[in-house]
Amino acid sequence: MSRTLILTAALLAASTAAFAQYSGSRQEQAACRRDAVHFCRGISDENQVRSCLISHRHRISEHCRAVMKAHGAF
What is the DSSP code string of 59-74? Predict the structure, then answer.
């Protein structure tokens, strides 16, 4: 399989329903990505990741906290 085909398949897999439903901008997603990977490892459902980040609200980065506040999470 060519590298381009593998990359395309990976990008299609990443566009799951959870990603499609998320209304945040790419910058907002990037602000929380590291925290989500660190604190919510293995969780793929958007609502569960949101709950996980809320439960770790005192430990997540300031940037992610600001995004969560802007979306009414806390």
Answer: TS-HHHHHHHHHTT--
Q: What's the pLDDT tens digit per position in 4-24?
A: 445 444 444 443 334 434 557
Q: What amino acid occupies position 9?
A: A
Tell the residue number behind the tokens 């329903």, with chain if given: 17
Tokens 């806390």, residue? Answer: 74
| Nearest partner of 54 among 2, 42, 44, 71, judged by Cα | 71
pLDDT at position 57 over 90: yes
What is the Cα–Cα distance from 5 to 51, expressed in whole angstroms? Answer: 35
